[in-house]
Amino acid sequence: MPFDVPGFKIGHATNEEFHTGVSVIICPENTVGSADVRGPAPGSRESALLQPDKPIKVVHAVVLTGGSALGLGTATGAARYLAEQEIGHPTPIRPIPIVPAAVVYDLFLGAGKFIPDEAMGYDAAASATATDDRQGNVGAGAGVTVGKWRGFPHFMKGGFGLASMAVDDFVVGAAVVVNAIGDVVNEDGSVLAGARDLDGAWLVDADPLRRFPVLPPPVGTNTTLAVAATNAALTKVEANRLAQRLHDALALAIRPAHTTHDGDTTFALSSGAVDAPFDLVANTAVLATAEAIRNGVRFAKSVAGIPGLGSGRLHTPFLQRINTNLREF
Prior knowledge:
Elements: E1 9-15, E2 20-26, E3 32-37, E4 44-45, E5 61-65, H1 73-84, E6 101-103, H2 118-126, E7 145-146, E8 156-157, E9 160-167, E10 170-179, E11 183-185, E12 191-193, E13 223-232, H3 236-253, E14 254-255, E15 265-274, H4 278-298, H5 324-328
Parallel strand pairs: 5-6, 13-15
Antiparallel strand pairs: 1-2, 2-5, 3-15, 4-6, 7-8, 9-10, 10-13, 11-12, 11-14
C-alpha cells in the first residue's frame, strides 16, 4: 500500500466537473499531532492549537481541501462525522473532535463556480478506509497544478500523492497535495513535471535560475500540503520538529520551494505504537514525503489541455486548448 500506517485511514470526495475536492486522514485513538506553516498566505484551521506550547496534543483527523479559504467548511463536515461516532477531545458536555485543516487555491480550472463544502468533508471522512490508495486527480488533488514559475500557459497537472517506508519496527506514510509554483524534480534534480515551452521542452534548461515573469501568479495561489503519519512514538514537541523536517522534502522534490507565492504547510502525526529514534523517523519521513510529492504528479492525468504524466505520452505542442478563464487570467 502507498500509505500503509496501521490505524490511519484516508478518504476523498471529488467534484470531477469543477475539478476540486477534499481529502481526509482519519487518525487512530490518541494520535499526537503538530504542524509547521511556512507559506506567506496559508489558509488553515487549528494550526495554532497544534503548536508545541499548547496543551492539547491529540488530533482526530486532518483535512486537506480545495476551494482556498472558502473550503475550510469541509473540516466542519469531517468533525460532524467524527462527533457522530463520539470521537473527540473529552469535555464536560460532549467530545469535541480536533480536526486541523489546510487549503489549496484550485479555483482556476472550475472558474471558482464550486467550492468544496461541509457535505463533501463529511462524505470524505465517512468513506475513509485503510486501503484507499488512489492518487492523482482525486480529492484535494483534483484541480492542482505545478510548474507555474513562468506563468500559467506553461504549467502541468499536479495531484494527490502517497508513499510509505518501513524501517525496523516503524512505518512512515506520507500524503501530499502538490500545487507548487516550482517544478517537481527527480532525486537527481532533473525535472519530472513542471514548466514547459510550447514544444514540450523544460524551460529550466534555458533558465536555470527559474526567473519569474513580470506578472507572476498572485501570492497565495500555490501551496503544497503534506501529512506524514507514523506509528513511532513522538511527543508533541517531537511531532512539531518532524513537521519542520518535512519541509526538507519540499526542498528536495520541488524547485523552487518556499517562495513568496507558496503557502506550504506540513502536518506530523504519531500513533505512538512503537519506540524509535527520532532522527531515524525524521529522515525516513523526509524521503517518504519527497516520494509522495513525485507520485502526486506521476499519477496526475491531463485536464482541460493541461498535460499530466498520468495520461501517458505528452503531445507537443502540449497546449492545444485550455480553459477560457485561464487564458483571461
